[in-house]
């Protein structure tokens, strides 16, 4: 499907370029991407709150393009909760059931089942203004659950909560998904939320799908530079450089601050790039202190100065400077180097991510089915 706002006008912007996605029954699919990339627009199109410019949306095999929101049997949980302020928690949750003319006993049974699951029994008689942010959030989710929709749509439901509550609610939504076996589409700009919740993740940027994959594969086989740097924290560092002709072929950054011989699968993948510019991505776990226990596979050695240390608890991030280049390594926090010290690093070559300098697409990914 595709969405263009202000069609026909000169400034008509393409908000969503074209998404082809089949969400499986009971699946939790997360859309993630930076602000303005089109996530909310996608949800609103599925909910029927926004017309689609081209394409087709079907739910359980039924095309719903022309159905109004009510007839689609989807429930959307909005970022701002959108609770009725003058109604109690119970009445907020019962609202949709009343519209369906269900009996009072039926409504009470359904609301109390859901409020028990969500831990809202204590606050059923209160109004939204008398609730904490997390409780309001749970009411908004509860209101969706009592409707028992075919599809749940969540638009950044946790972004108003503090960090601890966000993690707790994230777990609750994951547990809810498993216990209901419900089909959910969840939008967030938080890549950690996406990685921990999603069965599959759709990474979007500028209205385009960048990659659709399971969290682990997204991390291990980013299809392009955007996905490589967007997923993962701290972010992958991407160094521009070129592959020398050899033998042996080397990778060398533009200023020569980092240079090492290529070996193993990386050498094979980069063979067609001899004499050409590339981008090479380093995740913090591809780098280790040389004095730490070695790893399998081919390695390269680097020497630099410790620029900064960030202690994370069990491990630490050390930023190492080599002339005009900085790389971050994730190391054991037991035995930290000093800031300003010279240290030796080992690079695990087969954990690096090469990208084409022109297209920014991953070079010869080891997995061929990672295409979106
Ligand atoms: N009603 C509208 N009319 C015109 N343009 C719109 C409209 N709604 C959204 N857009 C544009 O479409 C693009 C996608 O917007 P959307 O709200 O889907 O982004 P988003 O990914 O949800 O961002 P955020 O993370 O900030 O919520 C943006 O460039 C936005 O300015
Ligand atoms: Mg949005």
| Distance between the first and last residues' Cα | 15 Å
What's the CATH architecture of the largest domain? 3-Layer(aba) Sandwich
Q: How helix-rich are the residues, as a percent range?
A: 10-25%
Q: Please, how many domains?
A: 2
So how many helices? 9
Bound heterogens, unique: adenosine-5'-triphosphate, magnesium ion
Strand proportion: 25-35%
Instruction: Return the CATH class of the largest domain.
Output: Alpha Beta
SS elements, strand count: 20
Shape: elongated
Overall pLDDT level = 86
H/E element sequence: EEEHEEEHHHEHEHEEHHEEEHEEEEEEE
Index terms:
Rossmann fold; 372 residues; binds magnesium ion; six-stranded mixed sheet; OB fold (Dihydrolipoamide Acetyltransferase, E2P); five-stranded antiparallel sheet; 25% helix; elongated; binds adenosine-5'-triphosphate; alpha+beta
Structural write-up:
This protein has 372 residues and is an alpha+beta fold. The protein has 2 domains: 3-229, Rossmann fold (3-Layer(aba) Sandwich); 230-356, OB fold (Dihydrolipoamide Acetyltransferase, E2P), CATH 2.40.50.140. The chain has helices spanning 39-47, 89-99, 104-117, 133-146, 163-180, 191-197, 215-220, 225-230, 264-270, and strands at 3-4, 14-16, 28-32, 58-59, 62-63, 74-77, 151-155, 183-188, 200-205, 208-213, 237-243, 250-253, 259-261, 277-282, 287-289, 299-311, 315-322, 325-332, 342-348, 353-356. Strand 9 (200-205) and strand 10 (208-213) form a beta hairpin. Helix 2 packs parallel to helix 4. The two termini are 15 Å apart. The model is unreliable at 7-11 (pLDDT under 50). Bound molecules: adenosine-5'-triphosphate and magnesium ion. The site of adenosine-5'-triphosphate has 13 residues, from helix 1. Magnesium ion binds at residues 39-40.
């Amino acid at each position: 499907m595709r969405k263009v706002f202000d069609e026909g006008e000169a400034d008509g912007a393409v908000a969503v370029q074209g998404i082809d996605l089949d969400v499986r029954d009971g699946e939790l699919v997360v859309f993630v991407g930076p602000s303005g990339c089109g996530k909310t627009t996608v949800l609103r199109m599925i909910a029927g709150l926004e017309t689609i410019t081209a394409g087709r949306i079907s739910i359980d095999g039924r095309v719903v393009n022309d159905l109004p929101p009510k007839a689609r049997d989807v429930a959307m949980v909005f970022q701002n909760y959108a609770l009725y302020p003058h109604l109690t928690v119970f009445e907020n949750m019962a609202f949709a059931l009343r519209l369906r003319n269900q009996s009072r006993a039926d409504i009470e049974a359904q609301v109390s089942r859901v409020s028990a699951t969500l831990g809202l029994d204590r606050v059923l008689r209160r109004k939204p203004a008398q609730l904490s942010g997390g409780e309001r959030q749970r009411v908004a989710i509860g209101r969706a659950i009592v409707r028992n929709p075919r599809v749940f749509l969540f638009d950044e439901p946790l972004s108003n909560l503090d960090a601890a509550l966000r993690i707790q609610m994230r777990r609750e939504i994951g547990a809810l998904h498993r216990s209901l076996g419900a089909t959910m589409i969840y939008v967030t700009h938080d890549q950690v939320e996406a990685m921990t919740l999603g069965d599959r993740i759709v990474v979007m940027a500028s209205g385009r799908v960048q990659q659709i994959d399971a969290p682990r594969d997204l991390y291990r086989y980013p299809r392009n530079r955007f996905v490589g740097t967007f997923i993962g924290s701290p972010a992958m560092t991407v160094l521009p450089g070129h592959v020398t002709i050899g033998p042996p072929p080397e990778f060398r950054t533009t200023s020569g601050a980092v240079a090492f011989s290529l070996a193993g699968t990386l050498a094979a993948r980069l063979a067609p790039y001899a004499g050409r510019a590339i981008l090479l991505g380093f995740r913090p776990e591809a780098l280790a202190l040389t004095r730490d226990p070695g790893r399998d596979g081919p390695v390269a050695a680097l020497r630099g100065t410790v620029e900064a240390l960030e202690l994370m608890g069990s491990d630490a991030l050390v930023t190492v400077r080599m002339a005009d280049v900085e790389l971050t390594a994730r190391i054991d926090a037991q035995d930290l180097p000093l800031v300003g010290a010279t240290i030796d690093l080992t690079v695990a070559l087969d954990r690096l991510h090469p990208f084409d300098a022109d297209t920014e697409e991953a070079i010869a990914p080891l997995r061929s089915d990672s295409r979106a």
